[in-house]
Amino acid sequence: MPATVVVGTQWGDEGKGKLTDLLAGEMDVVVRYQGGHNAGHTIVIDGETFALQLCPSGIFYPHITPVIGNGVVVDPATLIDEVDGLAARGIDTSRLVVSGNAHLIMPYHQELDRVTERYLGKNSLGTTKRGIGPAYADKAARVGLRVQDLLDPKIFRQKLEVALKEKNAVLAKVYNRLPLSADEIAERYLGEHAPRIAPLIGDTVSVVHDALDAGRHVLLEGAQATFLDLDHGTYPFVTSSNPVAGGACTGTGLGPRDIDRVLGIAKAYITRVGAGPFPTELHDDLGALLVERGHEFGTVTGRRRRTGWFDAVMARQAVRLNSLTEVALTKLDVLDTFETVKVCVAYEADGVRYERPPYHQSVLHQVTPVYEELPGWRTDLTGVTAHADLPDAACRYVEFLAEQIGVPVRLVGVGPGREQFVSFATA
Question: 0.90 exceeded by the pTM?
Answer without folding.
Answer: yes
